[in-house]
Predict the structure.
Amino acid sequence: MFFKSSKINEFRLWGLLLTMAGMGLMVLGTAGIVFWGQSGKVVAGVGLVIGLVAMMASLAIYFWAGMLSTSAVQLECPECRKLTKMLGKTDRCMFCKTILTLDPTHATITAEEVEEQNAAAKS
Ligand SMILES: [Zn+2]
């Protein structure tokens, strides 16, 4: 996990980055023709192919993220009270980035304890 965000959000981010990179490569490749003329066509060809592959990969990641999010567990975050989704046994809340886990052995604090803390903070 590179960005300390929930896994679904991270997949989306990577999908977006790859799409941007792919489009950037295609634009740069095409710009190569303008700058270098005939020899730039090779650069343009390579750029177009790599750009296309990157776009396809990002599409696959988006698709995968979509598939994963349908199997994700939906729950109310005990910290910010928003409905979030988590993948696997441990994930971060999509909104407040709190680490959530379904595995009691990994939990440092239970949902009940968070409730108690929140209640204590309010009173
Ligand atoms: Zn939250």
